[in-house]
């Protein structure tokens, strides 16, 4: 049974806190989802503040965040998303918490924007432009909601220019760099064999890090040579995790074809897992003890073997970019095929993230174009030009001298 419960502030007459709690909406229907309960809560708050706006006139930004924004936001996003965003909310409250919501001014917002973009040695946050853009955008949304709930008449942060996102180029490995890395791995060791399989599958399939960590053997059909991506892993620790039955985007659910070598690598790994009592349909593909792997482990594996190979270390997501580069540069794959394989919503998303990888990819096409059409033009004009004499003279400029009719006849 879903319900909402909230405090709407202090009653100016009685001095008591105004509390509201309900399990049904305005029409008397019980809430069937948390979203329905939150929708009704929003309506109740809006109506209350329209009538009693004076009650919370002096509400501080911290009170607003803790009593209104954060509880509502928590019902609207995934638990993993909320966990990631909490740090930013704490930062907002530390900076603006003691100020009354209505007293936040343009100068306050501008100073915060500057702080986000300033290096740490100069007293700033030291964030990258991309992350600063994300944090500043989140702050603006907190004030957007305050406007929609009629706590504020307008969003003062909208009078300050947003922080534009910078297009980050994710480092990746070329095919030769990848070969150098896996050459450092001794698969005779069970744990190193696991690390090899992880790097190989990520490089050869382009799955997202989280998608790969969530793979069970039931997701892989070795006989028909394909891998099904249908899950994400929400992981607080190796022993506290949830396997979600969806991916980052709706189009992320997909089936990826596997090459024969990858099938062989996976088949041998499953046999080895079975010797350790693993390898069942509901076992993780990437595991040595039945528990899922974590992102930091993949990062350490990459760092360790990249250093041994004398190759630049990359992030886990860099393996996804490495796969894209491999298909583009080795096989000149089309944008549409790559988009489907990576689970993008459309080719436009693929081009937005990987267009720089096609630089120079048309060299092979130019080589094929060479000599395909030979220069073979007419010996004399077959059209008659009408117009002034200047145009006629220009059309004949540089033309070889014509042979008089008499000369052609005598010849």
TrEMBL record:
Instruction: Recite the UniProt keywords alphabetically.
Output: DNA integration, DNA recombination, DNA-binding
| Top-level taxon of origin | Bacteria
Q: Which residues form a coiled coil?
A: none
What PROSITE patterns does UniProt report for this protein, alphabetically? TYR_RECOMBINASE
Q: InterPro entries under this entry?
A: DNA_brk_join_enz (IPR011010), Integrase-like_cat_sf (IPR013762), Integrase_catalytic (IPR002104), Integrase_recombinase_N (IPR010998), Integrase_SAM-like_N (IPR004107), Tyrosine_recombinase_XerCD (IPR050090)
| Occurrences of domain Tyr recombinase (ranges) | 168-368
By its UniProt entry, which Pfam families does this protein fall under?
Answer: Phage_int_SAM_3 (PF14659), Phage_integrase (PF00589)
Which stretches are transmembrane? none
- State the family named in the UniProt similarity comment for this chain: Belongs to the 'phage' integrase family.
Can you say what this protein is called? Tyrosine-type recombinase/integrase
Q: Which species is listed as the source?
A: Lacticaseibacillus mingshuiensis
């Amino acid at each position: 049974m879903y319900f909402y419960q909230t405090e709407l502030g202090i009653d100016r007459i009685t001095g008591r806190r105004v509390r509201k709690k309900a399990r049904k909406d305005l029409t008397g229907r019980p809430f069937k989802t948390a979203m329905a309960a939150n929708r009704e809560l929003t309506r109740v708050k809006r109506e209350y503040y329209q009538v009693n706006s004076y009650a919370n006139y002096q509400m501080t930004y911290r009170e607003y965040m803790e009593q209104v924004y954060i509880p509502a936001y928590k019902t609207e996003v995934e638990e993993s998303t909320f966990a990631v965003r909490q740090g930013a909310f704490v930062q907002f409250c530390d900076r603006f918490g003691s100020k009354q919501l209505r007293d936040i001014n343009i100068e306050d917002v501008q100073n915060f924007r500057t702080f986000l973009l300033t290096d740490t040695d100069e007293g700033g946050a030291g964030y990258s432009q991309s992350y600063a853009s994300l944090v500043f955008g989140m702050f603006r949304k907190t004030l957007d909601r305050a406007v929609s709930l009629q706590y504020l008449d307008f969003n003062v942060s909208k009078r300050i220019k947003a922080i534009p996102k910078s297009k980050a180029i994710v480092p990746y490995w070329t095919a030769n760099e990848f070969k150098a890395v896996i050459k450092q791995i001794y698969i005779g060791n069970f744990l190193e064999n696991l690390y090899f399989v992880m790097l190989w599958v990520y490089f050869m399939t382009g799955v997202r890090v989280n998608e790969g960590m969530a793979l069970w053997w039931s997701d892989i059909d070795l006989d028909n040579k394909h891998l099904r991506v249908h899950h994400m892993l929400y992981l607080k620790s190796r022993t506290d995790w949830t396997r979600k039955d969806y991916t980052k985007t709706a189009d992320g659910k997909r089936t990826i074809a596997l090459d024969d070598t990858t099938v062989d690598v996976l088949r041998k790994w499953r046999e080895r897992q079975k010797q350790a009592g693993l390898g069942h349909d509901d076992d993780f593909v990437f595991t040595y003890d039945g528990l899922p792997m974590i992102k930091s482990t993949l990062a350490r594996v990459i760092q360790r073997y990249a250093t041994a190979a004398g190759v630049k270390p990359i992030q886990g997501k860099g393996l996804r970019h490495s796969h894209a580069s491999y298909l583009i540069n080795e096989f000149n794959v089309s944008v549409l095929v790559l988009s489907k394989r990576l689970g993008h919503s459309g080719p436009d998303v693929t081009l937005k993230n990987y267009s720089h990888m096609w630089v120079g990819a048309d060299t092979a096409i130019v080589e094929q174009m060479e000599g395909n059409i030979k220069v073979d033009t007419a010996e004399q004009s077959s059209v008659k030009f009408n117009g002034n004499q200047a145009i006629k003279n220009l059309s004949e400029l540089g033309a070889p001298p014509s042979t008089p009719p008499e000369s052609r006849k005598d010849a």
